[in-house]
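User: Predict the structure for this protein chain, please.
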Amino acid sequence: MIRLAIATLTLSVLGTAQAKLFGGNDQARMAATKLCLDESQGYKMLGAVCIQYGSPAWKAEYDGMVDQAKGKSHRLGKDFWTTMNTSAALTIGGTSVPAGSYYLGLHCDAKGTFSLVVLDAKTANTKAWTPWMADEWKPDFTCAMTHGKSKTTVENLSISLNGDDPSKLDLKIAWGGHELTAPVQMSTGTMTDKAKDAAAKGVEKAKTDAAEIKTEIKKLPEPVKK
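Assistant: Here is the predicted structure, written as structure tokens:
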């Protein structure tokens, strides 16, 4: 019994000793951020989204591996997960993504069509998923992206959120001679300036129509009014 206990303890110690610690202080992590603030309320935050990622370098041989990517999910970026934290609900490539904290990846279907893979960070952490073992992922959302050729070669992976209107943002992932893009709408709970103008014009038109109807009624003969 004593020998069994000693053997169990020895195996336990050896098993623990096999674990290795990786990583360190990373000063090269990139970020794409959009903040929607209301100036009339002292720059109150209406919505924010931040994508953080490691930026790997492009290699020429990657172009020859496009067919190998089909039918699989893939990591996005390098080192730790590419993360997305959003305080506003988003619509990415037509897919609704609630406010929350997420990990991002990519998926390429059998036809070569790409999608952004969105995984709930809490779920991924609980299940100990890793960014380099995509076979174990179970995405919460997949967002359609359009693949195209970039005009110039992007040496290091670049992820950007472009646009000045929260309802008309553009997500772009560029690497090598390739680009993946998707429209993004940020739900801020407020109308855009264009929507406000349209609503104001609608109200004014309704007031004008009501006034004209009232005028026409006054012109009617007394028996007709009754």
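The chain has five helices and eleven strands.
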